[in-house]
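Explain my protein.
***
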Amino acid sequence: MKATANGRRCGQCEKEIYDFSAMSWPAIARTQAAHGNALCGMYAPAQLEHWGQAPPESACARLAAATALALTLSAIPAAAQTLAATTLSGTVRAVSSKGKPEPLPFATVLLTGTTIGVTTDEHGYYELAIPDAGSSTEATTVVFTSIGYETAQWELPPQSPGLLQHDALLAINLNTSLSVFSVRKPTVAARAGWTLRRWFGRSQ
């Protein structure tokens, strides 16, 4: 039989015999349907043994697939740990005049040595994203500040990715001096005097 582009040509009937030995069954079905299911073909022994079904994989192929899957799964945790960040959240409170801790709004939560920081909301709640904290071997310090209160610090444990919670309590800074002043509203007589002076000033 002479070789052709798709297989070989039969020397007796002059028909082209397709080489299906390296094709899958769906591909064979599409090729046969395109030629009216009238093609003669050559098949591999495994195809003839498992007619119409994919031949079972060999032990070497199964071992290679299992090895590739194991390598992929082992690489995922390492990448996730490298890229993992730490999210620190909590509530900042201060002791009120009644002696009870109350939420402190608009307090500053700052990561020392960086410009990473947030401000607490009206309920004193904060949420701070700290990048690379999960892979760092050194402790990180978080500072809590607010005007009129003493500064509080908290040391973030090294290599602590994920979600962490810490509530800070700020004490009143007794050494802070505040200037208090008031503006007194002018009386009716004073306002009337100003008006008269403006009138007489215009007439002159």
Summary: Residues 145 and 200 are 56 Å apart (CA to CA). The mean pLDDT is 78. The first helix runs from residue 25 to 34.
